[in-house]
Amino acid sequence: MKAVRGKNGGISLGKPASEIKIGNVVSSLEPLALINCSACQITPACCFKSVLNQAVENFLEELDKHTLTDMVKDNRPLYQLLLASEVRG
């Protein structure tokens, strides 16, 4: 992705929007650590962290079933912006 500031600026994508998976975007931009076990007394015997890690993995797997194009295809103005950013890229 490339960002250009100014009146005619914008964002151009590094690859086609149809190849950009939402799970990849979310995992790149959002902290996904649900808990901090460093101060916990029962960490050695706890199974909760593995359950949460599996939940996050399932969450991202579900998001990866969708692309950036999928997210905007029913919104004509956003879809046009997306197409324009692909042309600039």
Question: In words, what does this structure look like?
Answer:
There is one protein chain. The longest helix is centred in the middle third of the chain and has 16 residues, at 48-63. The termini are close together. This protein has 89 residues and is mostly helical. The model has no long low-confidence stretch (mean pLDDT 83). The protein contains 4 helices and 2 strands, in the order E-E-H-H-H-H.
Short overview:
This protein has 89 residues and is mostly helical. It has four helices and two strands, in the order ββαααα.
Query: H/E order of the elements?
Result: EEHHHH
**Poorly predicted runs:** none
Q: Rough shape?
A: elongated
Strands, count: 2
**SS summary, helix count:** 4
* Strands side by side in the biggest sheet: 1-2
Tally of individual domains: 1
How far is the N terminus from the C terminus?
8 Å
How much of the sequence lies in strands comes to 5-15%
Q: Kindly state the mean pLDDT as a whole number?
A: 83
Proportion in helices? 40-55%
Rounded to an integer in angstroms, the radius of gyration calculated over CA atoms is 18 Å
Coarse structural class: mainly alpha
